[in-house]
């Protein structure tokens, strides 16, 4: 992420799960992933930009093992506490810079939820994630559909105001992924500055290598 526009996720990590809207979004995204993907108990999965691990732990029972990767050590500390509390043996954490296009290992499944809009070069990121898939592996990315910039109350670290279906499917196809599809995984209801309710769809784009 750009150093002059980077949100301090470490500072908010301990309170992150206290927002009911975030919990519901994670549950909705996990439900959409389970519906869209052929999850199996022998899959090695990666949750890229996992935050406090809400999606990571939601997928954990349905894959063989899963790694939660994030650039915030504070968020990973929160996830590590959950892993220890539940004595989970198939979940691990990985600290990395989400903006640097380097990713070691190969995975049967890579997911990411609400991370793309924090990354400057999204096409390069999608290319990196696609390369890290094993043959036949699945990529599944969830983020806001294009919006007018009013979703985030604090724009710090927000580098994109969502993405169009055409952009996502185009980037997946450009990286050789097949059976690319986009669904609406969730919808986030937030009041605008004038108090009027607004609905923000969250897209899920999937494809396999």
Automatic annotation (TrEMBL):
Any one GO MF annotation of this record: methyltransferase activity
Transmembrane segments: none
Annotated ranges, domain Methyltransferase type: 46-140
Keyword Chloroplast attached: no
InterPro entries linked to this entry: Methyltransf_11
Keywords, alphabetical: Methyltransferase, Transferase
GO terms classed as biological process: methylation
Protein name per Swiss-Prot or TrEMBL: Class I SAM-dependent methyltransferase
Organism encoding this protein: Geomonas oryzisoli
């Amino acid at each position: 992420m750009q150093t002059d526009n980077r949100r301090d996720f470490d500072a908010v990590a301990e309170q992150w799960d206290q927002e009911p809207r975030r919990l519901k979004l994670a549950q909705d995204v996990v439900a959409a992933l389970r519906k869209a993907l052929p999850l199996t108990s022998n899959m090695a999965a990666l949750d890229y930009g996992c935050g406090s691990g809400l999606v990571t732990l939601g997928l954990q029972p349905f894959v063989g093992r899963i790694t939660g990767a994030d650039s915030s050590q504070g968020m990973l500390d929160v996830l590590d506490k959950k892993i220890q509390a539940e004595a989970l043996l198939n979940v691990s954490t990985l600290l990395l810079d989400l903006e640097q296009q380097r990713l070691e290992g190969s995975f049967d499944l890579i997911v990411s939820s609400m991370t793309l809009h924090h990354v400057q070069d999204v096409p390069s990121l999608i290319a990196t994630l696609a390369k890290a898939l094993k043959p036949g592996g699945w990529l599944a990315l969830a983020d806001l559909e294009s919006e007018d910039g009013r979703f985030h109350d604090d724009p710090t670290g927000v580098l994109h105001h969502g993405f169009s279906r055409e952009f996502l499917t185009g980037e997946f196809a450009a990286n050789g992924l097949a059976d690319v599809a986009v669904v609406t995984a969730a919808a986030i209801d937030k009041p605008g500055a004038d108090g009027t309710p607004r609905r923000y769809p969250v897209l899920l784009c999937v494809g396999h290598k």
